[in-house]
Amino acid sequence: MASELEPEVQALDRSLLECSAEETAGKWLQATDLTREVYQHLAHYVPKIYCRGPNPFPQKEDMLAHQVLLGPMEWYLCGEDPELGFSKLEQTNKPSHLCGRVFKVGEPTYSCRDCAVDPTCVLCMECFLGSIHRDHRYRMTTSGGGGFCDCGDTEAWKEGPHCQKHELNTYETEEEEDPLVHLSEDVIARTYNIFAIMFQYAVEILTWEKESELPPDLEMIEKSDTYYCMLFNDEVHTYEQVIYTLQKAVNCTQKEAIGFATTVDRDGRRSVRYGEFQYCEQAKSIIVRNTSRQTKPLKVQVMHSSIVAHQNFGLKVLSWLGSIIGYSDGLRRILCQVGLQEGPDGENSSLVDRLMLSDSKLWKGARSVYHQLFMSSLLMDLKYKKLFAVRFAKNYERLQSDYVTDDHDREFSIADFSVQIFTVPSLARMLITEENLMTIIIKTFMDHLRHRDVQGRFQFERYTALQAFKFRRVQSLILDLKYVLISKPTEWSDGLRQKFLEGFDAFLELLKCMQGMDPITRQVGQHIEMEPEWEAAFTLQMKLTHVISMIQDWCALDEKVLIEAYKKCLAVLTQCHGGFTDGEQPVTLSICGHSVETIRYCVSKEKVSIHLPVSRLLAGLHVLLSKSEVAYKFPELLPLSELSPPMLIEHPLRCLVLCAQVHAGMWRRNGFSLVNQIYYYHNVKCRREMFDKDIVMLQTGVSMMDPNHFLMIMLSRFELYQIFSTPDYGKKISSETPHKDLVQQNNTLIEEMLYLIIMLVGERFSPGVGQVNATDEIKREIIHQLSIKPMAHSELVKSLPEDENKETGMESVIEAVAHFKKPGLTGRGMYELKPECAKEFNLYFYHFSRAEQSKAEEAQRKLKRQNKEDTALPPPVLPPFCPLFASLVNILQSDVMLLIMRTVLQWTVEHSGHIWSESMLQRVLHLIGMALQEEKQHLENVMEEHVITFTFTQKISKPGEAPNNSPSILAMLETLQNAPYLEVHKDMIKWILKTFNAIKKLRESSSTSPVAETEGTIMEESSRDKDKAERKRKAEIARLRREKIMAQMSEMQRHFIDENKELFQQTLELDSSVSAVLDNGPVVSDMTLTALGPAQTRVPEQRQCVTCILCQEEQEVNAESKAMVLAAFVQRSTVLSKDRSKFIQDPENYDPLFMHPDLSCGIHTGSCGHIMHAHCWQRYFDSVQAKEQRRQQRLRLHTSYDVENGEFLCPLCECLSNTVIPLLLPPRNVFHGLNFSDQPNLTQWIRTISQQIKALQVLRKEESTPITASSKNLENMDELHLPEGFRPDFHPKNPYSESIKEMLATFGTATYKVGLKVHPNEEDPRVPIMCWSSCAYTIQSIERILSDEDKPLFGPLPCRLDDCLRSLTRFAGAHWTVVSLSVVQGHFCKLFASLVPGDNHRDLPCILDIDMFHLLVGLVLAFPSLQCQDFSGISLGTGDLHIFHLVTMAHIVQILLTSCTEKSGMDQENAAGKEEELAVLALCKMIQQYTGSALKEMPSGWHLWRNVKAGIMPFLRCSALFFHYLNGVPSPPEIQASGTSHFEHLCNYLSLPNNLLCLFQENKEIMKLLIESWCHNIEVKRYLEGERDAISYPRESNKLIDLPEDYSSLINQASNFSCPKSGGDKSRAPTMCLVCGTLLCSQSYCCQTELEGEDVGACTAHTYSCGSGVGIFLRVRECQVLFLAGKTKGCFYSPPYLDDYGETDQGLRRGNPLHLCRERFKKIQKLWHQHSITEEIGHAQEANQTLVGIDWQHL
Ligand SMILES: [Zn+2]
Ligand SMILES: [Zn+2]
Ligand SMILES: [Zn+2]
Ligand SMILES: [Zn+2]
Ligand SMILES: [Zn+2]
Ligand SMILES: [Zn+2]
Ligand SMILES: [Zn+2]
Predict the structure, then answer these.
(1) What are the start-end ranges of the zinc fingers (UBR-type) (predicted)?
(2) What's the confidence (pLDDT) of residue 675?
C-alpha cells in the first residue's frame, strides 16, 4: 500500500516545489482583498501538503509548508527576502530582560528560599547558575512541564531578580518604551495584516466543530473522498484498554497499537484509520462499542481529511507565529494587539478569548501549542500581560467551570495559567481591586459545592462518583485563592480594603458552610454499620488551612481591616450559634460557694462536630488584636461588649471533650472514621487552624470569665461535675465497688481535664497570647521534638508546621538549640538537643502525641539520671501573658481548682480502690508546680508598692473547709513524699516542697504581704527525719539493685547482638579485622616457599575438621569420607569485561574453551562460607522445594529466590545460593608423591607431550572409524611407536567417595547451567571447561579487588572468601576425575596446541586473543588426564612448572606485542636492571624480525622491561593465588603484608627467575620456533598494521561511571534525554546505567522489548547486554539506585547523593540541593566488584516482602 502511494506523493511534490514564495507574496501585496487571496491560497494548497495518507510525514510536510505556505507570508511581512528582513528586525530588537524559558517535563527548576516571593517563582538551570541565589538556601525540583523561568521578573524576587545573562538586557530607563517605534510604518501595517489573517485562520479552524465540512472560505472545488478515524485522549481509559481495543478495531499489531496509544496520550489525538467514510465509521463503532462499558466510551470522530489537514496547518501557524515574534519585541506587541482586539461580536470575541473559551473542547496537542504561544507573547509583554490578566479574570468563572467538567489534568488546561498571573503581586492586587477577584474565586468555588444539608452546611456523605470527581477538581480553586493572597500588600488603598473585606465576607460564607459539618453522635449498644465519609471535609479543611492563615496575615497588616473583619466574623459566629441558649431550661452549677448557669448539654448524648472554622478564625483574629494593641488603643471600636464568653468557649470545649471521651474509650462503637478525624485534628498538617485555635478560643473565653465559673462549666461538659461536687465521692465509690470500666473511664476523663487546664494556663507561645515572638514559638517546638530523640533534618521538618511557602522557620533557630552530628557511611545526619535547653522541657507540651509524651518523659528522666540529678521534671518557667490574657493565671489559684487538687491528693493519700491514677496525680503535681513557678515569677518581678494578687502558697497551706476538714494540700504532699507506692513521683514532690520554701523566703524578704504560718507542718519534718532516712536508704538499695539487673540484662542483650552480627554479617569487607588465619599452620620458616613444580615446598598432611551447620556434627575432610559442601552462588559476570557489547549468542553451540582477554563473559562463584553435609543440604533443599511448591499453589506468591532454578537461601545466614561446592584436600597430593629424579627440561618435555598428544589423536581417529578398518589399527600403532612409558589404555581409579563424586558433578553441572544458560547436562564436554573458567575468573576478580584497594595479596582475607577460593580451586582441580578421560585430554590437546602448534588444530585463536591466566588454569587442571597415563617418570609437578613457564613466556610476548610504544626521550639509567633491559631488547628484536618491519620504533630497554613488569603483575598474582590454593603451600610472609609490589617474592614463590627473560634464554631453540609461529599469525599482522584492536596489559579495572558533584546536572542531562523509540518524546522515567552510563527510557511501553519470549522494560533488557543479567541503575527523577538481577529480582538502594543535612532524598520530595557522597558511591562500586548485587537484592527482599511483588522486569 505504501509503495503505491509513494509515486503520487512524489508527483505532487514537484508541482508544489515550483511555487515561488516571492511571487505569491508579490501577488498579495497587490491584492485588494488580502484575506480572500490568502484563504484561496490556503484552500488550494493545504490539503495538497497535509494528510496525504494514513501516516503523517512530518519532515516532508514541514518542508513543503515552509516553501509554499509560510514562505510567502514571511516575504510579505518583510517586503524582502525574509533572511534579510528578519535579521534587520533582530538588530533593532530590544532583547527581553525576562528569560521566559518554558520548562520541559523533567527539567530541573530552582527556587530561592531566601529571595523568592513565593515558591512558584522558579529559575531555569542556566539562569540559576548565573544568579546570586546559587549561594543562598535553594530548593530544586523537577518541572512537570509547562510554566516558565521567572528570571528578570522584579516582582518575583526580593533580591537578585536578574541572572548575569539577563542583567545585560535591563536598561537605565525603567519606564516602558513602545517597542513599535523601531519598526517602519510599512512593516507595522503588513505585520498587522498578515498576523490578523493567520491568527484568525488558526483560531477558526482549530475551534471548527463540523466533521466533514470546511468553513466556506476554505471549501475546495475538487474534494477528495478520504476520511480519518480520529481517536481522542481521555483520562478515564488506561493504556491497556486502548491498546486492546485498537487491536480489535483496526486490526493492527500490538506494536502499532502501542504506537497509536502513545501518540494519543502525548498529542491528545491520532488517526487510527484512513480511507473511505464507511471504512472509518466501522472502526469507530467498534471502538465505541468496546469501551462503553466504562463510565463513558472513548471519543472517536470520523473527520474529512481536508479538515484534519487545515487543523494541522493551523497548529503550524501558531508555532510559526511564536517563532516570528522571537525576532522582535515590536512584532510581539503587534501579535498581542491582534490577539486581544475585540471582534465584531463584542464581549469575549477577541481571538484570545475564543481560544480560552474553547480550551476544554480542544485536544491536548492543540492546547499546548496555543498555551506556548500565549506564554511567549502575552506573558512576555508587560502591557499586554495586564490586559490579558483582566480577560482571564473576567472569564474566570467560565474557564474554571469548563475545567471542572473537563477530564484532562490541570497542566493541560488554560485554567492553569492562574499560577502565571495571580502570583504576580501587582496583577493580583489589581485584579482584587478592579475585578473583585477574591470574591469571584470564592463564589465560583461555592457554586460547585451545591450539596448542602438543611442547615446549609456542606454535605459530602452520599457523594456520587461524579460529584467526588468534581470535588477533587474544584480544589484547585483554593490553590488560586492561595496564589492571590500569597504576597501581602505593603500599602492599602480604600479600594483594596473594600474589596478585600468583600472577599472576606464571601470567605466567611464559605466557612459558615463548614461550621458544624459532619456532626457525629455517640453510638451506644451496637457498632456503627458503615463508616461515615469524613475525608472530604478534612480535605477541604486541609486545603484551606494556609488560606485561613494568610487571610489572618492580611488582616494583621491594617488596623481598620482587622477591626472590620473581627466584627464580621463575630457576627457570623453569632448567627451560627443562633438558638444556642434557646429551648431547654438552663441548669445551675455550684461548688465552693460559687454558682453559674449553663445550658444542658452532653457531648456523649448529643451531636458534636469537629469542624468549627468560624470560631477558630475569630480566635485567630482575637490574638491579632491582642498582639497589635488595637484593643487597648481603641476599645470603643471593638464589639467586646457583644462577646459572650460562655458562647465563645462552648463549641471548642465540646470538641476537646470529644477528644477526651474518645481517648477514654467511650466512642469505640463509632469506628475508625472518628479515630482518624481526631488524629488529623491534632496532626501537624491541620492543628494550626484546628486544635491550636480551639485552645486559643478557650483561653480567650476564660480570660473574660470568673475562673471558678469556667471550671464548673468544664466539669459539667466533661461529665465530671457529680464527682467533684459530691463530698466523699471517693469513699462512696470504693464502698459501692461499681463497674470497673466506668471508674477507669472517669479516671481518664479526669486526667484529660487536668491536661486541658495545664494547656490553658501553660500554652503562651503564640505571639499575642504570651509575650513572645515567632522565633520563640518555633524554638519551643524544636526543643520538644528533640526531647523525644535526636532527629534527622527531614524528620524534624515533618514534625513542624509549614507555612504557605513551605517554610518552617527552622533553619534560623536550629543552631541555637541543637548540635548537628554528621552521618557515617550509612544513616543520616542528626540534630541533638543542646543540654542547656533541657530546662525548657515541658512534659505536657500540647503538641505531643501520647506516645511521644511517654518517650520524651523516659528520655528526659534517663538524661537526668545520667547527669546524676534528681528525676523530677518540673514545669518550665513561662513567659508572661499578654494583657488580654493575663487573668488566665488565676485559674490556678481559684477555689474550684484548689478543690480539684485537694480531692485528687486526698484520693492518693487514701490510696484505696481504683479511683485515682498515677497520671492524675502527676498532672496535679504539675499544676501545683506551675502555680509555684507563677508565684515565684510574680515575686521576682514585682514593682514597688504593687500588691501581689497571686497567693497560691498561702492557699495551699490552709486546711480544707468544713464539712470535709481535710488536711491542707501542703500537708498531704508531705505525707505523700514518703509513700512507697509513689517512688517515681518522689523527686517531683520534693521539688515542690523545696520551691515552696524558696517562695516563702522570697515573700519574707520582700514582705509584701503576710504569709500564713506554715511552720507547723514544716517542723513536723524533723521528728520524722529518722524514720524517713531509713526508708530512703532502703529505697536506695532497692534502686541500685534494680539498676544492676537492668544493666546486666542490657549487657546480655548486647552480647547476643554482637555474636549474631559476627555470624550474619561476615561480609566481604576486606579491611575488616576478621582474623581469618590462612592455613599456613605448618611453620616452614627458614626456607623459601615454592608453590609448584618439582621443588614445591612439602607441606605435611593436615587434618581438617569442620562442623555441619545443619546437624552440628563434626566431620573430617578427606577423600574417602562423606562429602562436606559450602553453600555457593554461581553467576554470570561482566564486572571485568572490557567489551560490553559481547554476549553469548548461541549458547547451544558456543565454545568456551578459550577465554578472550576482554573477559567479556565470565562466571563468578561466591560463597557465604557456611559448611554442611552434602546429605544434610540435600534434605534441606528438598524440603525447601516441597514447601515452595505448596506455597505457590496456595498463594501464588513470589519469593526472593527461584527454587525451580535451584536457588535457596543458606540455612544459616539466608544468603542467596544456587549450588554447593564440595570441600576437598589439595587434589594433587591424592595422586602422586613428588618425584625429584631426573626430570626433562622444557624442550624435552614439550617434545614428549607432543608425541603423547599425537599418539592420542591417532587413537581417537581410529576409535571413530568403522571397525572394518581395524586391521589397519595395529599398523598405525607401530608407525607412531608409542612414547616410552605412555599407556593410553590405562584408566586410573577415582580416589573419591561416591558422595564426593556426586557433589563434584553437582557443582560442575550448576556452573555449566548458569554459565551458558542451558539445560543441565552432566555429559556435555563443556562442563569441565566451565568449572576451570569459573575458577580462573573468580581468582581474577578477587585479585582486582585486592589490587584496587591496595591490599596485600595474601593478607588476612575474610573466612568466607578464603574458604570459597580454596574449595573452588581444589574442586576445579579434582573435577576431571568425574569426566570421561578422553574429553579432558581433548581439551588439553587443544589448549596446548594454541601455544605449541600441532597438525590437528587449525582454527585456534592467535595469542592476542587468549586470556593467558584462563589458559594456564585450563592447562594445569587438564594436565593430570594425560599425565596419569604416563609412566615414564615425569612428575605432575614438572608438567605444572613447564606449563606455567610456557604460558608466562607467551604472556610476555603478548605484552610486548601490545604494549603501547610511546617514545620516551630520557632513558632512565638503572644499573640493576641492565641485564633485563638487554634481554628484553633482544627478545623484542626477535619479535620484530618475525613480524616483519611492522614494529618500527624501538623503545628503550628500560621502558620495555617496565612495561613487561607492570603488564605481567596481575597474571603473576593470580597464578600465586591459584597455586597456593591448589597445592596448599603457605604463602611467603613477605606477600602477606601490603607495600611494594613484591615482584621478586612472587617470582620466587612461583619458581620463576627474577629476570623473566632468562626463561627465553634457557630454552632458546624451542622458543625461537614457538615465537615465530605465534608471530606469523595473520591476526597479529592485522593488529600491527592497525586493522584491528587488541587488549593491552595491565588491564585497567572497570569502574562505575563518573557522577557529577551536583545532582541537578544529572537531572538536566536526563531532561534533555528523549525516548529513543518514540521520536523525540521526553522519557518519563529516565534511568542511567551506572556501569556504562547509558540513559534508558524505563518503565514505559514505548521501550519494552521482547526477551526470551517475555516483554521486558528497557532496564531489564539492558542488564542482559551490559551486565549478564545484573544491573545497577540510577533512576534520575527519583534519585534512587536500582539493583536488578534477572527478570524477577530487584531492589532499591539508597543513592550516593546527600543533602547538607546528611540525608538522601529518594523521590526528590524535599528538594534540598544534593551532592555526591564519594564514600557511598564507592560502597556501591564495591558491591559490584564483589559480585554482591544479587546477594544484596536477596537480603533486601527477605527484609521487605513487598519488594518481591514488584514487576521488576517492566522497569
Ligand atoms: Zn531562565
Ligand atoms: Zn536569566
Ligand atoms: Zn536568593
Ligand atoms: Zn550435617
Ligand atoms: Zn551462609
Ligand atoms: Zn521510550
Ligand atoms: Zn550499561
Answers:
(1) 97-168
(2) 92
Per DSSP, 1302 falls in state H
Long-range contact pairs involving 1532-1537 (C-beta distance under 8 Å, separation at least 24) = 1532/1088, 1532/1089, 1532/1354, 1535/1352, 1535/1353, 1535/1354, 1536/1352, 1536/1354, 1536/1355, 1536/1356, 1537/1352, 1537/1355
- Answer whether 1703's CB lies under 8 Å from 793's CB: yes
How many A from CA of 1065 to the centre of ligand 5? Answer: 10
Coil, helix or strand at residue 1160: coil
Cell of 961: 473547709
Task: For residue 30, count CB atoms less than 10 angstroms from its CB and return exposed for 0-12, middle for 13-18, buried for 19 or more.
Answer: exposed
Q: What percent of the chain has pLDDT over 70?
A: 88
Closest CA to 1259 of 1384, 1376, 1386: 1386
Task: Say yes or no to pLDDT of 123 above 80.
Answer: yes
Q: Are 1657 and 1646 in contact (CB under 8 A)?
A: no
Number of neighbours of residue 1432 by Cβ within 10 angstroms: 12
DSSP code of residue 668: G
What mean pLDDT is predicted for residues 258-278? Answer: 89
Quote the DSSP letter at residue 1656.
E
The Å distance, Cα 100 to ligand 2 centre, comes to 8
State how far Cα 1575 lies from the chain centre. Answer: 56
What ranges make up the beta strands (E) of 276-410?
Answer: 300-304
Report CA Rg, the chain: 44
Ligand 5: distance of its center to the CA of 1338 in Å?
19
Q: Which pLDDT does position 1075 carry in this prediction? A: 31
Residue 1426 contacts residue 1468 (beta carbons within 8 Å): no
E-strand ranges in 145-258 read 227-232
CB 1674 within 8 A of CB 1684: no
Distance 151 CA to ligand 3 centre (A): 12
> What is the chain's mean pLDDT, rounded?
85
* Among the listed residues 440, 423, 441, the one whose alpha carbon sits nearest the alpha carbon of residue 477: 441
pLDDT at 1369: 94
User: Residue 815's closest CA among 840, 842, 782, 787?
Assistant: 782
Q: How far is the CA of 1066 from the centre of ligand 5 (A)?
A: 9
Eight-class DSSP state of 887:
G
For ion ligand 5, residues whose CB falls within 5 Å? 1168, 1170, 1210, 1212-1213, 1215
Residue 1665 CA to ligand 7 centre (angstroms)? 8
Which pLDDT score is estimated for 57?
Answer: 80
Residue 708 dihedral angles phi and psi, to the nearest 5°: -65, -40
d(CA 1739, CA 510): 53
Of the candidates 1450, 1403, 1442, the one whose C-alpha atom is nearest the C-alpha of residue 1593 is 1450
Please tell me the distance from the alpha carbon of residue 968 to that of residue 912, in angstroms, as a whole number: 20
Between 685 and 96, name the one with better pLDDT: 685
CA–CA gap between residue 1365 and residue 1165 (Å, rounded): 9
List Cα–Cα distances, 1428 to 1251, 1432, 1439, in angstroms.
15, 10, 12
The predicted model gives 1646-1669 an average pLDDT of 87
pTM of the model: 0.79
The pLDDT value given to residue 1054: 44
> Rounded to an integer, what distance in angstroms lies between the CA atom of residue 839 and that of residue 940?
19
pLDDT band at 1658 (very low <50, low <70, confident <90, very high): very high
What is the per-residue pLDDT across 986-1016, written as a single tens digit (0 to 9) for each?
A: 999 999 999 999 998 888 876 644 444 444 4
For 1615, residues 6+ apart whose C-beta sits below 8 A from its C-beta are 104, 105, 106, 107, 108, 142, 1626, 1630
Instruction: Note the helical H segments in 983-1014.
Output: 986-1006
For residue 116, the ligand closest to its alpha carbon is 3
pLDDT attached to residue 41: 92
- Residue of 1259, 1284, 1298, 1270 whose CA lies nearest to 1385: 1259
